[in-house]
Amino acid sequence: MRVSYSKLDTYKQCPRKYKFYIDKAPQDPSRTLALRFGSAVHAALEFAYAKRYKYPSPERVINYYRGLMQQESDPQVLKLFEKGIPALEKYLAKNEAAHMSIVEVEKKFMIEIGRGHQLEGIIDRLDMLPDGSFEIIDYKTGQIPDAESLSKNWQLAIYQFAKQRKLQTSRIKASLVYIAFDGHKLTYQFGKNELERIHSEILDLIAKIEADNVYAPRVSALCNTCAYQPICPAWTHKYNIKDQVLTGKIKDTDVIDIQSKIDKLLVLTSTIKKLEKESKQLKEIVAIFGKENNMTRLFSDLGTVSLSFQKKRAYDAARIAEVLRENLLRKIVKTLDTKKLEKALPYLTQEERKQIEAFTTEKESHTIAVRPTIEENEDVEELLT
Ligand code: SF4
After folding, report:
1. Whose CA is nearest to atom 2 of ligand 1?
2. Distance 155 CA to ligand 1 centre (A)
3. 280 band by pLDDT with thresholds 50, 70 and 90
4. Quick one: which of 11, 20, 23 has its CA closest to 229?
5. Lining residues, ligand 1, CB within 6 Å
6. Fewest C-beta in 10 Å: which of 40, 116, 145, 290?
7. pTM for this structure?
């Protein structure tokens, strides 16, 4: 199977989106704004840094970008493209091609990764640094992620792996460059073990893709920007209900009826949430009153509220994990579950118990049992007035 980072990442996001992608299903153009903007910025940077007799001036690069902008007519896209101009100007001013040692731009690669699979991709730019090492550059037009996520970034790992193979050196690091954020750079260099781990994760994912014949939609926040939303089965009710009525698949009276039921269900669910929040606040107030006045049962004409107060031991899991790291007990209390930890305490040495004691606090808690005597058909509003 021949895969790319973008195909693998699309499958991870949503198997159905992957299926649409490989089947070249039609995309909703109004949902590809960010993609078009990203492609134009990439094209402008390719124009700026591609090897030729003389690198173009920043003005020429911006004119080239404006040319791409003219191919767009959607006001929303144009607004996005406008923002790209100062971002590109800043990046080009700080990164003059003539002062850099650019090895490749938009270079395709294809590597064998075992089990008969190939991995392909295109690397935005490869620079040689003054110390003779290499830096892979991948331009981004979105938001900056957490730096901690870099060690799990398959894209950078794949690029580093591909270049290491081709250049036969491990002196390669990979960077994400955020054009809209002053060219902010996040850099990572994967170690041998990390590359091996990601390599085996990729092979596992390929096996999963090969075995998949359902491609189930995975609804998430990413649906908001998915260009396949109008044809996705998870969104049929939103986009295709009219067609189904017109073709006689569903009766319009059924559609109206179910719509009112959906509305009612949503209103009820939201009301229950609000009531649960209010009930929690009232329980707290009642518990504080009971505690302060040393009462465990409170009465009303509408029922009773019973209170019980306990002291619970709270463990600082992170600190205790440090204490137990080298210890056998770590195996017993893998998750630092409070109950398991308490069961294991008698088997510890006095010194270990002392260490755990230092990271233990006592917290007061309470439980409340509310027993209304209100009948189901009684008017609650009236009872409260
Ligand atoms: S709309 Fe959501 S569920 Fe449907 S294909 Fe796109 S990402 Fe997947």
Report:
1. 223
2. 22
3. very high
4. 20
5. 14, 16-17, 217-219, 222-223, 226, 228-229, 232, 234-235
6. 116
7. 0.78
